[in-house]
Amino acid sequence: xxxxxxxxxxxxxxxxxxxxxxxxxxxxxxxxxxxxxxxxxxxxxxxxxxxxxxxxxxxxxxxxxxxxxxxxxxxxxxxxxxxxxxxxxxxxxxxxxxxxxxxxxxxxxxxxxxxxxxxxxxxxxxxxxxxxxxxxxxxxxxxxxxxxxxxxxxxxxxxxxxxxxxxxxxxxxxxxxxxxxxxxxxxxxxxxxxxxxxxxxxxxxxxxxxxxxxxxxxxxxxxxxxxxxxxxxxxxxxxxxxxxxxxxxxxxxxxxxxxxxxxxxxxxxxxxxxxxxxxxxxxxxxxxxxxxxxxxxxxxxxxxxxxxxxxxxxxxxxxxxxxxxxxxxxxxxxxxxxxxxxxxxxxxxxxxxxxxxxxxxxxxxxxxxxxxxxxx
Length: 376
Fold this sequence. Notes:
Number of domains: 2
Number of strands: 9
CATH topology of the largest domain: Alpha-Beta Plaits
Structural class: alpha+beta
Shape: globular
Largest sheet: 9 strands, mixed
Low-confidence stretches: 184-193, 222-268
Strand content: 15-25%
Helix content: 40-55%
Number of helices: 11
CATH superfamily of the largest domain: Nucleotide cyclase, GGDEF domain
CATH architecture of the largest domain: 2-Layer Sandwich
Distance between the termini: 57 Å
């Protein structure tokens, strides 16, 4: 048996067991062959070697940790593009990817053995869907100028003999930047606001100000040309609900005349942290809706720092019409942690922005809903 320093990648398909229960053997074989080609093509392009398949997953090895991480990111990005084209929700596929670097044993068949292999498998189990999680050994060995990352701290993985420090790799932007974001509860700083919180607040405020400035110009121009121009898009992608006869609009105040009918916020709506994102008629794609559900789950599981980081990441990634949704989620997470100073900073900037009354009343309604929640 040969010993070599390698980077091991474990890739796991989510929902494989459920899928196999509803398909024939031939259908499952076709699906597995498709996924094998999908993964192996990307791995080969990145300079990796497919070691073996394990029904619902794959084990891959790389000589270069940087190539391993880059390939993991490329697989997740390609998978997101594929999922966006699927009309049937049952056709959506999600991967968890865990990566570790260390000295492993290689037998005559090319199979890998050793503690680094076990750690990579445990990191994959620990990882979130659609993401790439790596160990500290991979983080230190790779070219960190190529990627951004989130430091999740030392984690007690199942059957591991010691705690393993883990990083989440950012799939979009921030190369060379590592943000603190441990899963363990984070104590507030003496000033009550951590540096990561400040960065998230600044990002949210900038997004809100830029968006509302654009919307203000759009609405004003549209109203001046109402006779020859189509009605303006609603703020946040929401449609004004039609109130009962004689009643006043509850949420949006004075909306534009003849608003489009493609988007509607449900009646008796509470806040975004409480609603099923798939029941909302918002301008969000499948991935964005599932991300909202992930944020809700992280919040309910008290993994608050990770929920904040995911909100901040989505604010940078999504389009202008979707950014406010995640900004509102972020402010609500702050509010529910009694971090009222953080939340109020975002609220104040919204109230002081030069935006049409329609948009301002809608924002105020959402803010009041957040403030109406009982802090646990």
